[in-house]
Amino acid sequence: GAGVSQSPSNKVTEKGKDVELRCDPISGHTALYWYRQSLGQGLEFLIYFQGNSAPDKSGLPSDRFSAERTGGSVSTLTIQRTQQEDSAVYLCASSLREITNTGELFFGEGSRLTVL
Amino acid sequence: AQSVTQPDIHITVSEGASLELRCNYSYGATPYLFWYVQSPGQGLQLLLKYFSGDTLVQGIKGFEAEFKRSQSSFNLRKPSVHWSDAAEYFCAVGARYGGSQGNLIFGKGTKLSVKP
Description:
By secondary structure, chain A is mostly beta strands. Chain A is built from one helix and ten strands, in the order ββββββββαββ.
């Protein structure tokens, strides 16, 4: 597709369940980012993939969160044993190269997660 | 590590009036600076960016921003606001050096409302 695609757009789950959120970046973009947007909290950096380099996981809030990127393209963010505080919109973005070279992230419309 | 502050959570202006949204950053050197806009129900879109050179940068939709090193600021301006500018605006900083290169740190956003 032409833009960053995320699925599902909405996910309601029960506390304690695991969820997977998918991101399909723009074709050819080597950098991929996950952010979390909570009400009044702005965008919180979670994880960053760049090509074949080891991902920058410094923003993951706990070991319940993990992400992988297969074949340098599609990425999956997994949240295990979800908690109510995990409720947020999870945004994925991609960039042609490192942000410091290109200056622009292209964002998907997000996956809204609600944990009951 | 870099950080960014947007002091105004919510601003209301009349259509046709001028606009200034504030952004202050903390970083040991000159960072890369960005403004993104998030319109209702849409993904984030880059408005403008500053990497180096002229400290007054022009962006899309008639926006501009000025980098002031002495004030660690990168305020966004528009001379005449249109109703379609109602959205949430995010300032972001990227590191030029060090381990956190590659990711963008976002402020908490400023919500702009436009009165007819």
